[in-house]
Amino acid sequence: xxxxxxxxxxxxxxxxxxxxxxxxxxxxxxxxxxxxxxxxxxxxxxxxxxxxxxxxxxxxxxxxxxxxxxxxxxxxxxxxxxxxxxxxxxxxxxxxxxxxxxxxxxxxxxxxxxxxxxxxxxxxxxxxxxxxxxxxxxxxxxxxxxxxxxxxxxxxxxxxxxxxxxxxxxxxxxxxxxxxxxxxxxxxxxxxxxxxxxxxxxxxxxxxxxxxxxxxxxxxxxxxxxxxxxxxxxxxxxxxxxxxxxxxxxxxxxxxxxxxxxxxxxxxxxxxxxxxxxxxxxxxxxxxxxxxxxxxxxxxxxxxxxxxxxxxxxxxxxxxxxxxxxxxxxxxxxxxxxxxxxxxxxxxxxxxxxxxxxxxxxxxxxxxxxxxxxxxxxxxxxxxxxxxxxxxxxxxxxxxxxxxxxxxxxxxxxxxxxxxxxxxxxxxxxxxxxxxxxxxxxxxxxxxxxxxxxxxxxxxxxxxxxxxxxxxxxxxxxxxxxxxxxxxxxxxxxxxxxxxxxxxxxxxxxxxxxxxxxxxxxxxxxxxxxxxxxxxxxxxxxxxxxxxxxxxxxxxxxxxxxxxxxxxxxxxxxxxxxxxxxxxxxxxxxxxxxxxxxxxxxxxxxxxxxxxxxxxxxxxxxxxxxxxxxxxxxxxxxxxxxxxxxxxxxxxxxxxxxxxxxxxxxxxxxxxxxxxxxxxxxxxxxxxxxxxxxxxxxxxxxxxxxxxxxxxxxxxxxxxxxxxxxxxxxxxxxxxxxxxxxxxxxxxxxxxxxxxxxxxxxxxxxxxxxxxxxxxxxxxxxxxxxxxxxxxxxxxxxxxxxxxxxxxxxxxxxxxxxxxxxxxxxxxxxxxxxxxxxxxxxxxxxxxxxxxxxxxxxxxxxxxxxxxxxxxxxxxxxxxxxxxxxxxxxxxxxxxxxxxxxxxxxxxxxxxxxxxxxxxxxxxxxxxxxxxxxxxxxxxxxxxxxxxxxxxxxxxxxxxxxxxxxxxxxxxxxxxxxxxxxxxxxxxxxxxxxxxxxxxxxxxxxxxxxxxxxxxxxxxxxxxxxxxxxxxxxxxxxxxxxxxxxxxxxxxxxxxxxxxxxxxxxxxxxxxxxxxxxxxxxxxxxxxxxxxxxxxxxxxxxxxxxxxxxxxxxxxxxxxxxxxxxxxxxxxxxxxxxxxxxxxxxxxxxxxxxxxxxxxxxxxxxxxxxxxxxxxxxxxxxxxxxxxxxxxxxxxxxxxxxxxxxxx
Length: 1208
Prior knowledge:
Residues 592-1187 form the Rab3GAP regulatory subunit C-terminal domain. GO terms for molecular function: GTPase activator activity. Belongs to the Rab3-GAP regulatory subunit family. Residues 86-312 form the Rab3-GAP regulatory subunit N-terminal domain. InterPro entries: Rab3GAP2, RAB3GAP2_C, RAB3GAP_N. The protein contains 47 helices and 20 strands. The longest helix has 30 residues, at 657-686. About 13% of the residues have low confidence. Strand 2 (74-83) and strand 3 (89-100) form a beta hairpin. The strands form 5 sheets. An 8-stranded mixed beta sheet has the order 2-3-4-5-9-8-7-6. The protein has 1208 residues and is α+β, with helices and mostly antiparallel strands.
């Protein structure tokens, strides 16, 4: 590698560019014709002519006014790029700086451009003083002094009593070179030395404007010679310069500065002088280093970037002295001035005079330091070369890689190189071992004091891991003669179970496997027991003689465990040799046990499909238990071994309950085997020849294993139940029900508290949306198996799903088995309580799902114990109901009718349909609460118990315990609230209008609503205001009329015959509710009954009216009301049909009856198509209930004759 020239840009036509920029340098037409075919020669043509023409260039190219009367020494263009990142240029600042013998003029580039277009330029001019001669200058840019520099400057200028501002001023810095001093530093305060052109224009506005436009006209080609001469005669006023004193300088009478060049970061400046060259700090104002001078030398700066992959890249700048080129001109492209380092590009470029292309000098970083001691740069170069080799084929670079890593000098870089090789996936194991061994041998052969112990230990550790990987891979590749599969009896003996217990274990695991639908993601190239060497090295680390596992995630941990033990668990590798190899390598038994259990518990599906793996696990666990420091030597039967406790902890935390149960059985068996061996050895020393085959030694660990086995079996049965589901469902599934259930573990159940088990089952019931009846049916399953009720069971259980009988039967069996395992935790009242709470919680998440609240109240009603029922109902009211009910009440009272859907969603958070159901559920909830309060006085509170295996459960208090802690309600207050709920429900259910629910109560009644139901409130008592009573009666009559109208509409929709009985609305008997409301609202119930009977006859439902008449007490008044209705029917039949027979019959009727019929208005009838025979029955009812001395009795008799005449 070496320095190289990289293309930067290219001028296609240098001559055209020069003519455009400087039109006064254009050649004449004839000369241009002679030179048209001649390519531009930058060495001969361009540079001298440009320099000579500067004095002839009109000042109007910069500003159409004089700046100073002295000659121009030099001018520089500074372009500063404010780089926010390496690739995005956010802002460009340009400045034209002109040097005169006694002044420096700076013109802002952007303002200059604008002024050339619209006479708005920004000009700043300063006169340099205290300097003999200035030949070159550089504009460093805008800077701000540090507080220390500010105080130092103030002290130098103002002395002891100098005062400073709170914030350091912003100033522009300029560096000049010349003589006395040969380097000077000038500072111009921002805002004080750069007057805007608008201020200057106050004096020369007219001259400046005309001069600008005249000059612009000349550029565009329409300016006449006469106009040009007139402009030249006008000499604008020259603005006086602002004096600017040199603040700092480097004085030396023998030295004369010639030129100055800023570094890319503008923090350093290189100065050429007559005697030598040096560079100085722009901000420190000190000379940093000097070199011996060279004749006709040139200076420049080049930057390079050190490419570091692991940390942020470092940028370096280099000063070039005497750049020897024969065919290139140096062209400076300066970037933005900044106090801090900014990413800069193309600081120095070379211009090719032949082709017109511009190139930049690229210096590779490792060649930046070319002296013999640049070992670090060389090492970095070798490391880069090694990284490039790693991408090639291994056969090509193995030998070269060893040479490169040996050539590296620094130990840290050697380690970095070796790490990059070991981390490569393309390097085979043999090459890794070869390279590592070679480096290690080289280090050992060095002198003792020169060897880096850290690098040597690193090589030794990696070599140890590579040898271990090779040994384990070899053991996994060797084929082992498969052993004879064990029979069920042999497996039962191995696990120390009898045949019945082993058969039960098999059944539980089979059910668990069938219902367990959990899937794991596997890729095509995944193979069990295979681990790339790169990952193997990343997972492990050596510490002294031990091998430790780094902190890994579950998948990585299982992959490492599979590499060691999966072939052994499958019976395809020698377990003894594997355990011996791992123990010899430095693995602790505890770490190996953790890896073994990790792969066993993770690969549950494969384990359950291969029962013979139980024998392999037993063998492996026995070998690990016999290792040194596995089981403490001081362990006895009366203490708990940390070894076995580690295994039990892994089983408790595992969510794969099938694999955990099997590993617990194996652990219990091995523990009992070791305990028996120790006890037998101790017992045989005291009693020689004793028979110990028929007994089992007791130990504390054995008892803990038995407890864990019971917990794991319970958890397995519960997990099997939660995995089960109905095969097909026709009901709509909510998004809340579609969310999967979390898997269970013994740890989760213990941390869930006493209600954790019932809560898990309640969540499963909610997901499946089972009817509450299924919970009772599962408990009675054994009694119903011998009866003819399965069809009835299916209809009630499967939620109207008739296609899932087989699935329901399995679910009933699993639920029944769960009842047996958890007789206390899954007692029916407790389970109904948790289901009730789960449904109402889910309803609160989505109030549009009104069926969730209905199902919650269904479970509430199924609770037998009134204490639990009372408590959970009160908790539901306070937590979820009262706030929404209050919002609904005030909304309905505000609009005076059943509100629209939009208003319901805005104020209550649900649509109008959902709110109707919600109000009905509120009424049911309060009714259930009152019934529970009455029943609780007749029964005792339940005693909550827990299964022995789960008494150690600790967690949040259960819902049942919270329910039993609730206070008793104030019954009259609940009854008062229930009346309001029923009224609200009626308004929404029948879309009643012109009804304000709160207007039906006085001030006491209104104030009592929505208060704590356990508090004592002042309720209405005594006589009620007649106006309120009138409003109540109007409301009830509206409600009754709406009920009858709905009944009639439903009857017609179903196509039922008129005489068929109408099934009442589900769970709601509105006529009875109306009577109950009348009682609570202090109204006459008989008035409501009579109105209900009249409405039934009005809608033509005479069969229901005949039944309702029996409930009326004052039948005489009812008969008078029905007599009018009968007259309306006859008037419609005789007067409004206009038939010949009707007219003849009307003529034969008594005049009194005719007059009365003509006064009837049949338009009030809701159903006029009633048979005359039905009306005849109604007239007979009227005659029956009217006394003979009644004033309308004779009229009723005439009606009978008329009806008979019509019928005949």
